[in-house]
Amino acid sequence: MILSVVASGLVFFEVPINWTSFATGGVILVAVAADSALRRTGRRRR
Fold it and tell me: What transmembrane ranges does the database entry give (predicted)?
């Protein structure tokens, strides 16, 4: 859902397709990093 919102926003602002792919990859990397950080802090609390 977040990826579709980001992609729609980039299309709306007429961003070139190369940057759209770059932004999609960036969103995925941020999501993986956030998930990893949350899992790490969850393990420490147990």
Answer: 20-38
Q: How many residues does the chain have?
A: 46
Q: Quote the CA–CA distance of 26 and 41 in Å, as a whole number.
A: 23
Residue 6 near residue 15 (C-beta atoms within 8 A): no
Task: State the pLDDT at residue 22.
Answer: 92
| DSSP structure class, residue 20 | H
Residue bearing tokens 């990859």? 25
Mean pLDDT in residue range 17-40: 93
Taking the C-alpha atoms of residue 36 and residue 40, their distance in angstroms, rounded to an integer, is 6
- Domain definitions of the chain by residue range: 2-40
